[in-house]
Design goal:
5 helices, single chain, about 110 residues, mainly alpha, globular
Length: about 110
């Protein structure tokens, strides 16, 4: 097994309490869809990339002549907290339903 794969497994194990809580919360709508552990990690990394990209776009818009400053891990955590606090529960439920509808494919 490749070292990167092992690192992801260790990461999931070390953070399994938090990640399983998230995984179970996505299953609360009583659908039969249970996300695999790797999908939870994928969605987390996607969210990190999304908030970093959004921050870069906003920074460039407001600081046209400046280089992007480096982001620390703490900076990224703050961006994620800000992003999550801006979405209320209804928005999260609507987004979850939309994703569920898009993911379910009817096979004739």
């Amino acid at each position: 097994m490749h070292d990167d794969s092992k690192n992801l497994i260790y990461f999931y194990r070390e953070n399994s309490d938090k990640l399983e809580k998230i995984r179970n919360s996505l299953h609360e709508d009583k659908s039969n869809l249970i996300y695999p552990q790797m999908k939870i990690i994928d969605m987390g990394f996607w969210q990190i990339g999304y908030v970093i990209n959004s921050w870069e776009i906003e920074y460039k818009k407001n600081n046209k002549d400046s280089e992007l400053p480096p982001l620390t891990f703490d900076d990224i955590k703050k961006l994620l907290k800000k992003e999550s606090s801006e979405m209320d529960k209804q928005q999260l439920d609507d987004a979850k339903r939309k994703v569920m509808k898009e993911k379910i494919v009817q096979v004739p």
